[in-house]
Design brief:
By secondary structure, chain A is mainly alpha-helical. In chain A, 66% of the residues lie in helices and 0% in strands. Chain A starts with 21 loop residues before the first helix and ends in a 45-residue tail after the last helix. Chain B is elongated and about 110 Å long. In chain B, helix 1 runs antiparallel to helix 2, helix 5 packs across helix 8 and helix 7 packs across helix 8. Classes of the chains: A mainly alpha, B mainly alpha, C mainly alpha. The interface between A and C is large, with 45 and 43 residues.
Chain lengths: 538, 286, 219
């Protein structure tokens, strides 16, 4: 089947060079290639949405109009949110890194359903194309990424096309999740018991459960919204007797678990990196593993905290506020276990570890401010302000994106067989980390002083904070630029990577970098826990 | 769990005798007839839907366990499938916790000013006029809160006065009142206290009680001055920041529907009406 | 990644599995997971149903009298029969009797088509009476008093419509299985594709089992 041949420049045959040409990539069933394709695609969308964010920040340089009109502003923040959420964060870690790593870490040749895996990629592309098409050829969309009714029913923008795109991309997410669960349950290497799985797998497992259970609901919600606009069925339209708040219930029943679809894989990455760069068995393995599942479970009980001020009943406000606080428990368990792993470890501050530590710091801020918002009375004051914006950027960007950057640097040698330049990586990290705080810390202050989100103009007293924030956005952009340039350069010209440059213990480091088509020459047998580090004698 | 094990013995696939399928089929047909039949009888209350749902669930279980063969599957598939319904139950349950518990689902008049307020309004004009009732209520409050400093006769010679500097106000004297002797002025002193002196604010008392105190104090004064209209008006203004209206969703939806119909009829936008007519707080998104 | 023959029992399975048995178990587990997503998808509509029925119980009672209990009941029986023939088809494949299996699959297809034909008559009757979803609802043609009755028909058409789409997809899948059965691709050693399609088809039946009393047999 696979005609392996030695590449011209003396590399061993690997998944990157075993067959050549665009076509061989387009029809590949190899989980590693599909993961890499997902990686490039999501990175493109990340760049697009990132530029939109830069434009938004620039618009806020002064209190009134600067570079765009008010309608354009509405569209730009909507697209920034929609592209980041549906086309970058949700597929990024699970579909890109997850696809690449899951079979390697479990000790198998591929995911359970390789064809479905490739299909999920194309389904994703079709959905993304619809959304992009709405921007290029339609009237874009100006409802905010949440598509709240009744405005989304009467907005003059191309809501139907964008919503259809989200609907289609949902299938891609479902396929990926389904595939991963089946792989984890049925294709583990001999001896790879559930309690010997790396923590990244546990996190991906929890994520996949969410994808399978919650994503169909966004499917039906988007479907109903389309029907609302096309056929005027009235389920969410008060004019026809429907209930627009019901839309919010439907939307958040998916979109709150989706927040954990975004963050859980990041937590998985951090668990791997912390253990490797502390040279210590991870502290509280089972606690970290089960807290992932607990977060997934609890995520279905808390969606109403997005609706405290939507006119929801007092009873459910109370209920959701109470339940939301529960999320803090498994999250804190993770943070404490990571910190305990660091204790007396032989810590090595390479770029992945810098990012893992940044994750703990930033995510803790993001998580704790989430508790402010979970408190009913505080939330009434803070809802829809920049405080909320800063909170979820600390979680989504300070959490997921930071973890992704850490993960990319950590597994880049495995994916492309070459090391990234360490010192340049650290410069990039400094730009991203300090820029990020410059960008979002002032937004906490602005929010608590009443600066509402999604406002085009703002009172002059906020000018300075907005400008600080904008400068921060430039620093972050510079950091990303450095990272992308150095990683891209490294994938071709970097120092050759050995099988296991970090001295890590999980299975993916036992094969060549980059791995061969079928991952393992002889199928591995596992007989120990994945983090058996011996104390290092220096 | 160790490597996936195969629960089914021997060859691995459980093959049911054909007879089972026919029996299940007969069961399903009979139950369908029963459920249609029972719909013609009124069992009262919500019994009909309950019976229909029980029958449907029995039918569903027959299909799941035998046609789909879940009875012969391992734990994995069973847990996977049946757990789904728990999540569906959460979806229904927590959504209902909102929809069926909203604080007011009865139709509300369209007049916004008649919406229920979150606390009682204060009618300054009425309270600014002294009545015998208020003065006697004020006297009680005075005995509880003021007498230790200002003295039983209001001459500023209560038992605690000796220790204070400056001395407490003598209500009988007409000169030296920091804020003045009118209703609004005394009210201000009671509410805010006099910073830099031992006189504390009594904002903890309700507005009604504070007005009662004011009227009692003024009843002790020789020739209390008439209330200054401008000062009263500004006091009125202070209280006219009306308490937040609670806007029931049902009412907001009615407004929206009317708006939509109005704009359909006249082909013109009245976009801001809901927002400006009420304190409808926007919807939170995160 | 074509199926290839291996020494484990003489029948084909994909390269990343260790045995045909493992492939069978994994595929079936995958199918159950897929059914989970289907339940959650329909679940959204069931939630909408429960919410609106709870809000306007009297409207649901009034509006449902305009649905045809007999047609709905007959359709229930038709789907149950199709489930039976589907189960029998799988049983026949398991017994290496592809000829009888093909017959049962054809019967399943016929029942499915019959279901859709009956549905078509039901729908055209609704169209005629202005019993349509949301904005298209026309009370003048059917005399329903309740001002929100359009919601009932929105839900009716959305639920039965989505179910109908699933019936169509199911027919396509059964047709595909019929073709493969007739060309003798399946045997007692390798039959999981038919079994998976069967699982899907039974789920379609399952959803109808709930739709029928919820829509046609209210109060």
């Amino acid at each position: 089947m696979a005609t392996t041949h030695e590449a011209a420049h003396g590399n061993h045959a690997n998944y990157l060079n075993e067959s050549k040409g665009i076509w061989s990539w387009m029809v590949t069933l190899d989980h590693k290639r599909i993961g890499v394709m997902y990686l490039w695609t999501t990175m493109i969308f990340f760049t697009i949405a990132g530029f939109l964010a830069l434009a938004l920040r620039l618009e806020h340089w002064g209190p009134t109009q600067n570079i765009m009109g008010a309608d354009t502003y509405n569209k730009v923040f909507t697209l920034h949110g929609a592209i980041m959420v549906f086309m970058f964060i949700i597929p990024s870690i699970p579909a890109a890194l997850g696809n690449f790593l899951l079979p390697l870490m479990l000790g198998t040749k591929d995911v359970a359903f390789p064809r479905l895996n490739l299909a999920s990629y194309y389904v994703f592309l079709v959905g993304a194309a619809m959304t992009v098409g709405a921007i290029l050829f339609g009237n874009s969309v100006d409802t905010g990424w949440t598509f709240y009714t009744p405005y989304s029913i009467k907005s003059g923008s191309s809501v139907v096309l964008v919503v259809m795109g989200v609907f289609v991309m949902g299938f891609s997410s479902i396929f990926t999740g389904l595939n991963f669960i089946a792989t984890i349950h049925k294709l583990r290497a001999p001896g790879m018991t559930f309690h010997r799985m790396p923590l990244f797998i546990w996190a991906t497992y929890a994520t996949s459960i969410l994808q399978v259970l919650a994503t169909p609901v966004i499917g039906i919600t988007m479907f109903l919204l389309m029907m609302e606009r096309v056929l005027h069925v009235g389920i969410f339209d008060p004019k026809l007797g429907g209930d627009p708040v019901l839309f919010q219930h439907f939307f958040w029943f998916y979109s709150h678990p989706a927040v954990y679809i975004m963050i859980l894989p990041g937590m998985g990455i951090v668990s791997e990196i912390i253990a490797t760069f502390s040279r210590k068995p991870i502290f509280g393995y089972r606690a970290i593993a089960y807290s992932s599942l607990a977060i997934a479970g609890i995520s279905f009980l808390v969606w109403g905290h997005h609706m405290f001020t939507s006119g929801q009943s007092d009873f459910s406000n109370f209920l959701f506020s109470l339940l939301t606080v529960l999320v803090a428990v498994p999250t804190a368990i993770k943070i404490f276990n990571w910190t305990a792993t660091l204790y007396k470890g032989s810590i090595k501050l390479d770029v992945p570890m810098l990012y893992a530590l940044s994750f703990i710091f930033l995510f803790t801020i993001g998580g704790l401010t989430g508790l402010f918002l979970a408190a009913l009375s505080v939330d009434v004051h803070l809802h829809d302000t920049y405080f909320v914006v800063a909170h979820f950027h600390y979680v989504m960007m300070g959490g997921t994106v930071i973890a992704l950057l850490g993960g990319l640097h950590y597994w880049w040698p495995k994916m492309f067989g070459r090391m990234y330049p360490e010192s340049i990586g650290r410069v990039g990290w400094a730009c991203v980390f300090f820029g990020f705080n410059l960008l979002f810390l002032p937004q906490f202050w602005m929010g608590s002083h009443g600066m509402p989100r999604r406002y085009y103009n703002y009172p002059a007293e906020f000018t300075l904070s907005h400008q600080i924030s904008t400068v921060g956005s430039w620093l972050v952009a510079l950091g990303f630029l450095i990272h992308f340039a150095s990683l891209l350069w490294a994938s071709k010209y970097g120092k050759k990577a050995s099988e296991n440059p970090w001295g890590a213990k999980t299975l993916e480091w036992t094969v060549e970098s980059p791995p061969t088509l079928h991952n393992f020459h002889t199928m591995p047998t596992v007989n120990s826990f994945p983090y058996e580090y011996k104390p290092e004698k220096v | 769990m160790e490597k996936p094990t195969h629960q089914n013995s021997g060859h691995g696939h459980h093959i049911l005798p054909m007879k089972v399928y026919y029996l299940v089929w007969i069961g399903l047909i009979v139950l369908t007839v029963v459920t249609v039949g029972s719909s013609y009888i009124d069992f009262g209350g919500s019994m009909n839907i309950l019976i229909a749902m029980i029958i449907a669930t029995i039918k569903a279980l027959l299909v799941i366990l035998f046609f789909m063969g879940l009875k012969y599957e391992g734990l994995e598939n069973n847990v996977t499938f049946f757990c789904t319904f728990a999540f569906l139950a959460i979806f229904v349950g927590l959504t209902s916790a909102d929809i069926f518990y909203r604080f007011d689902t009865t139709p509300v008049k369209v007049d916004v000013s008649e919406l229920p307020a979150s606390s009682e309004p204060v009618n300054v004009t009425a309270l600014a006029n002294a009545t015998p009732d208020m003065i006697s209520k004020g006297k009680q409050l005075y005995a509880q809160n003021c007498v230790s400093c200002h003295g039983a006769e209001g001459k500023g010679d209560g038992p605690a006065a000796a220790a204070l500097n400056p001395k407490p106000r003598n209500f009988v004297a007409t000169e030296g009142w920091k804020n003045g002797r009118g209703v609004a002025e005394v009210f201000k002193t009671v509410t805010e206290g006099i910073p830099g002196t031992p006189m504390p604010p009594f904002s903890g008392l309700s507005p009604d009680d504070r007005f009662a105190l004011v009227h009692f104090v003024r009843s002790v004064m020789p020739n209390p001055p008439a209330s200054d209209a401008a000062a009263l008006a500004s006091l009125e203004k202070q209280f006219s920041v009306a308490p937040k209206k609670r806007l029931p969703v049902a009412f907001a939806m009615k407004l929206m529907a009317e708006d939509a119909k109005a704009s359909d009829d006249q082909q013109e936008k009245k976009a801001d009406r809901v927002g400006s007519a009420t304190d409808c707080i926007g919807c939170e998104t995160r | 990644m074509s199926h290839h023959t291996s020494g484990h029992g003489g029948h084909a399975f994909a390269h990343h599995f260790e045995s045909a048995e493992q492939e069978f178990e994994t595929s079936k587990f995958g199918m159950w997971l897929f059914l989970v997503t289907e339940i959650m998808l329909f679940g959204g509509l069931f939630v909408a149903y429960i919410i609106f029925r709870g809000m306007y119980p009297e409207m649901f009672v009034e509006a449902h009298h305009h649905l045809d209990k007999v047609m709905g009941g007959v359709n229930t029986l038709v789907l149950i029969c199709s489930s039976l023939t589907m189960a029998l088809a799988i049983g026949m494949v398991q017994r290496n009797n592809n000829k009888k299996a093909s017959m049962y699959l054809v019967a399943t297809l016929l029942f499915a088509a019959m279901f859709l034909v009956i549905k078509y008559f039901e729908y055209s009757h609704k169209f005629h009476d202005g019993l349509l979803p949301g904005a298209h609802f026309d009370a003048a043609k059917n005399g329903i008093q309740h001002p929100k009755a359009d919601l009932f028909f929105s839900i009716y058409f959305l639920m039965t419509g989505l179910h109908g789409v699933h019936v169509l997809i199911g027919m396509g899948l059964i047709g595909w299985m019929l073709k493969r059965t007739m060309s003798n691709e399946f045997s007692s050693q390798y039959f999981f594709p038919v079994e998976l399609v069967g699982l899907y088809w039974h789920l379609v039946d399952l959803i109808w089992i709930y739709l029928f009393p919820l829509l046609y047999l209210i109060g």
